[in-house]
Amino acid sequence: MSETTTIDTETTGESQRTTTDKSQRTTAGESAETVQSEWAEYQFEGEPKLSVESLDVHYGDDRALDDVSIDIPEESVTALIGPSGCGKSTFLRCLNRMNDRIRSATVDGQVRYEGQDIYRDDVDLVELRQRVGMVFQSPNPFPKSIRDNIAYGPRKHGDVRTGLLAKLTGRDDEERELEIVERCLRKAALWDEVEDRLDDNALGLSGGQQQRLCIARCLAVDPDVILMDEPASALDPVATAKIEDLIEELAEEYTVIVVTHNMQQAARISDQTAVFLTGGQLVEYDRTEKIFENPESDRVEDYVTGKFG
Ligand SMILES: Nc1ncnc2c1ncn2[C@@H]1O[C@H](COP(=O)(O)OP(=O)(O)OP(=O)(O)O)[C@@H](O)[C@H]1O
């Protein structure tokens, strides 16, 4: 697919955030500049895993993200919340350049992964999406066996070789492949449910099992960051609870960023929360507890208490 994304590749070094007076509570009428400065003080230990600076996204002439800057810490869960159409999914897709696939999308600004600008012309998109994996709203397993779903990525990337040719050339990695399949299914809390039917078609699994399989498939290519776009919105409460537990476990090893419409879910599972509001603005970003218990912005308070959105 052709890529028409416009990228600003200017390198400006580490982001400089100005500290502002947090006593300035905002109202709906205040300018974006004032509103966006609210969360400038959110600080965490260590270097950011992802650092986004002045990110603007347009679809044709329509703006979807407006000057978004945010640093995301490693090995934690970051929730992205906000009303429908405020740009959460667009933002998520910028983090592994999935928006490159959308012809009308124009991306300006900077996204750094471990300090490296991911929008440089020479970035290998396959490698980027391997490191920054994605799990979608609706479970989308391949119409293949459970084993093949997990082994797909490692086979494609040449990490394992199986099959007749591999057997004939003595490079058969069947054992290693099974080890990867088991490890990833265990990490996705699915192994116990499927260990005796690895060769069954994945489409025979329940919705919740399919979603955990998709997470296991994502883990199989050894990601560092996992982007999740409403991963539980199509699931029943029991399956949702399993995904939530899994997300919290994954955050011990991975950097997880989750878009969710469910504010209780954001409050339950995330360490920090970013609130986007209409117009594609990131209005507030802070510890999840702070966002839900004592947000700086009146608009955020109205949103998290359900007064609008
Ligand atoms: N592929 C696209 N082409 C054109 N416009 C798009 C495209 N994807 C999103 N948009 C527009 O960009 C804006 C932000 O959409 P986005 O899906 O990122 O928001 P969202 O907050 O994730 O919404 P939701 O919560 O409903 O999924 C919306 O106005 C949407 O219509």
From TrEMBL:
Q: Name one GO biological process term.
A: phosphate ion transmembrane transport
Q: Where does this protein have compositionally biased stretches of type Polar residues?
A: 25-36
An example molecular function term from Gene Ontology annotations:
phosphate transmembrane transporter activity
Q: Name the InterPro entries on file.
A: AAA+_ATPase, ABC_transporter-like_ATP-bd, ABC_transporter-like_CS, P-loop_NTPase, PstB-like
In the UniProt record, does the keyword Cell membrane occur? yes
Keywords from UniProt, A to Z, are: ATP-binding, Cell membrane, Membrane, Nucleotide-binding, Transport
What GO terms fall under cellular component here? membrane
Region ranges (Disordered): 1-36
Q: What CDD domains does the annotation carry? A: ABC_PstB_phosphate_transporter
Q: Does the keyword Glycosyltransferase apply?
A: no
A Pfam family per the record: ABC_tran
Tell me where in this chain the ABC transporter domain is found: 50-304
Q: Where is the composition biased (Low complexity)?
A: 1-18
Under what name is this protein listed?
A: Phosphate ABC transporter ATP-binding protein PstB
Organism encoding this protein? Natronoarchaeum mannanilyticum
